[in-house]
Amino acid sequence: MFLNKNILIITLAIYSASLFGQKDSTDITVKDLTIKGDINIAQGVYDPLSPSKAAFYSAIFPGMGQVYNKKYWKAPIVWAALAVPTYYYQINNSDYKRYRTAYKLRKNGLQDEFTSDAGISSVSIQTLETAQKQLRENRDMSLLSGVIIYILQIVEASVNAHLLQFNTDDNISFKPALIMNPIRYEAPSVGLVIKYNF
To answer: Which residues form the DUF5683 domain (predicted)?
Structure first.
């Protein structure tokens, strides 16, 4: 027992001597240092408010977030994508109102636009009901698709603003290379070498 304690104490003493014997190489003091000229500190590309600004601009006016991100070619695509459901919403809504008015007039025994002066109707009342139902569904789908496109263009502007902040310098590259093993020429083995430069 006494021998084990002595061995432990001697071992700790040897290791502690080597631990405290090292000198810190980062402890450097600089005295009387003068710098001639200007020091340029490069600012980073990262702007944490850029994605929220792009999303806010897109929410106010569709396509404005894409213009804020300097992706000018995307703005006409956003406007066209929002114009199509708006156009179909207006057409379906006006036709729905026409058929709805004709249905109400027909139910009250009055003449509607589908009834001639002789009292002959070109559209039955069941057709008016079916047309109203179909036009209402088309109108609602146009509205839903317009809202989805509106939300997607906000998300696209925000994500694009995030992705624009990544460093895509040519010095940061991934260059795989396949090298054949010259020693085992008869039974070739293929390896992968990855080189990266900063």
So the answer is: 48-198
Q: Which of 166, 170, 172, 167 is nearest to 196 (CA)?
A: 172
Angle CA(183)–CA(185)–CA(190) in degrees, nearest 5?
90
Per-residue b/e over 23-41, b at no fewer than 16 CB within 10 Å? eeeeeeeeeeeeeeeeeee
The gap from C-alpha 118 to its chain's centroid, in whole angstroms, comes to 62
Using a pLDDT cut of 90, give the percent of the chain over it. Answer: 45
| Prediction pTM value | 0.61
Contact call for residues 111 and 89 (beta carbons, < 8 A): no
Segment 14-61, tens digit of pLDDT: 656 555 545 555 556 666 667 676 666 555 556 777 899 999 999 999
Q: 56 Cβ partners below 8 Å, 6+ apart? A: 65
The answer to whether 66 and 75 have CB atoms below 8 angstroms apart is yes
Q: At what angle do helices 50-60 and 125-163 cross, to 10 degrees?
A: 150
Element of type H or E holding 192:
strand 190-195
Q: For residue 149, what pLDDT is reported?
A: 97
Look at residue 1 in the predicted model and tell me its pLDDT: 63
Q: How many CB atoms lie within 10 A of CB 136?
A: 15
